[in-house]
Amino acid sequence: MNKPFVEFSNLTIEYPSRDGPVVALAGVDLAFSAGDFVCIVGPSGCGKTTLMQTLAGFLAPTRGRVALAGKPITGPGPDRGVVFQQPALFPWMTVSENAGFGPMVRGLRRERREKVEYYLKLVGLWDFRNRYPYQLSGGMQQRLAIVRALVNDPKVLLMDEPFGALDALTREKMQEELHSVWRRTSMTVVFITHSVEEAVYLGTDVVVMSPRPGRILERLCVDFSRRTGERDDIRSIKASPEFVATREHVLGLIWASAD
Amino acid sequence: MTEARAITQGRSRLPEWAITGVSVAVLIVAWVVATDGGFVDDLFMPSPSSLWSGFMDLVVDGYKSRTIWEHAGLSLERVLAGFVTGAIAGTVIGLAMGYNRVVEACFSPFVEFLRPLPQLAYLVLLIVWFGIGETAQIILLFLTAFPVSAIAAMDGVKSVSRQRVQVARSLGASDWQIFRFVVFPSALPEIFTGARLAIGVVYATLIAAEIIAGSTGLGWVILDAGRFLRSDYVFVGILAIGLMGLSLDYMLVAIEHRIVHWAGRY
Ligand SMILES: Nc1ncnc2c1ncn2[C@@H]1O[C@H](COP(=O)(O)OP(=O)(O)OP(=O)(O)O)[C@@H](O)[C@H]1O
Ligand SMILES: [Mg+2]
Question: Does any domain span residue A202?
Fold first, then answer.
């Protein structure tokens, strides 16, 4: 294994509350390399969002350390793009202004025009570039939120249940789009999801977390996402015995931890 | 609003403007019958013809050496001068108060104290300081608009979505850019709501300002004519002041719809 690109060491997060601190994460150790597609699954309230927030730099560790490329994280930055479960678009900006927000604030005018056009065309939003977010459907808004993160060329893309609100068909299309973008770039992806199938299908690594206080139960290396040749047929991958076995193993871990 | 109506009403037969027209027509007919029919004395309520001749008097001869247009113009100038300066200053201070706790701590005692204070309470003081005339009146209107706008802008800034700020920050925006592109636009709907509220109170205060600290303007005409029992002039004055207020509010709403067309729709 290469030298870790992202590293959580003994990370503990406590939220203050009236009845004493709530321990959301208790000593998480996790490391992964550049270019990995890390999917995080676990029961609701186990600390997945919390874990992502520390890597994004929105939340400082209570104890322990989070580092990116060897440097501790001190705050948010354009090297880490975020996509929340809610699109959190800027409703006063058009679709293309939303998409180009990153390069705009960083003063990269030429990149802005090219990347915005490229990604909006990729996800089928180019014809809507002069509309406002309220004129888009929920799925289109979520695609725009993802484009907004991608246009900024982050080294790490952090996604918190980005497809949670989408229908099955749109969801699979989005999975493919995200996957092809990941394959063509050297981006590292941290992807939180409630769908074990999605995690096993998309990830190079699947991280299973325990109920609160969150710890890492198991980390599996899976390779369905690296099999570029066969990927034309999603359904057959998802139905293959190997895929089903891995999926059931992960589900079993989550069920066992719930008791 | 329209959506909610569509739900509660199902299918509607008469369009709204027709209902409005009928309602106004009924009132006018009642007025004509009551006055021309001799049920109500002209002193209490002028008939249509005496209202019209009163209006022509005010247009041609004017009231106390000024035509009604001049009085209306003076009132409008005061409202605009007081409202525009007060709303802009209030919005700027309110934005800063919402964004920075030091600024908030500095200004909030004054803003909070000024807001519920009846304007007439300090009008007296303003007259002592600036004398009867434009200055005292405009400062009064400024002080009326200021706290309303300041509090609206501050609340607007404070209600900004945390996730949007986080997204902007992780895309590389600086503090100033976050203010300029995220916080300020988020606060715009509340700033507009504050502006409409402010123009309402400024308008109400205008009458008091003109009555106590002046001898011109529609408010003063109404009061002065009342003293001489010229209810025709009083009615013309009230109609003028009402229509002017309505147009000001319409203008603000039109600007609001243009600028914050996205408000409440995401
Ligand atoms: N601001 C907060 N204050 C106090 N406790 C919090 C706060 N945010 C989260 N928690 C607690 O920390 C724990 C982890 O929360 P987190 O949002 O990370 O869970 P999650 O795994 O993302 O859950 P879900 O799958 O439902 O989104 C939860 O038990 C929650 O109650
Ligand atoms: Mg969560």
Answer: yes
Q: Left (φ > 0), alpha (ψ -120 to 50) or beta: where does A190 sit?
A: beta
pLDDT in tens, A4-28: 899 999 999 999 999 989 999 999 9
Task: Tell me the pLDDT tens digit for each residue of A52-74.
Answer: 999 999 999 999 999 999 999 99
Would you call A133 an interface residue with chain B, using a CB distance cutoff of 8 Å? yes
A167 shares its domain with A233: yes
Separation CA B202–CA A136 (nearest Å): 40
Is the domain of A245 the same as that of A192? yes
A152 close contact with B: CB closer than 8 A = yes
Write out the two tokens for B4.
Answer: 């909610």
Compute the Cα dihedral for B238, B241, B247, B248 and give only its sign: negative
Q: Three-class SS of residue A182?
A: helix
Asked if residues B71 and B63 have their Cβ atoms less than 8 Å apart, the reply is yes
**A219 is written with which tokens?**
């980390």
| A134, A65: one domain | no
Q: Residue A242: give the domain boundaries.
A: 1-79+157-177+188-259
> Sheet of A63-68: strands edge to edge?
A22-32, A6-15, A63-68, A71-72
- How far is B41 from B34, CA to CA, in rounded Å? 9
CB within 8 Å: B170 and A76: yes
Cβ contact, residue pair B181, A78, below 8 Å: no
At B7 the pLDDT is: 55
Q: In this predicted model, what pLDDT tens digit does every residue of A166-202 receive, in sequence order?
A: 888 888 888 888 988 898 888 999 999 999 999 999 9
Q: What is the ipTM of this complex?
A: 0.90
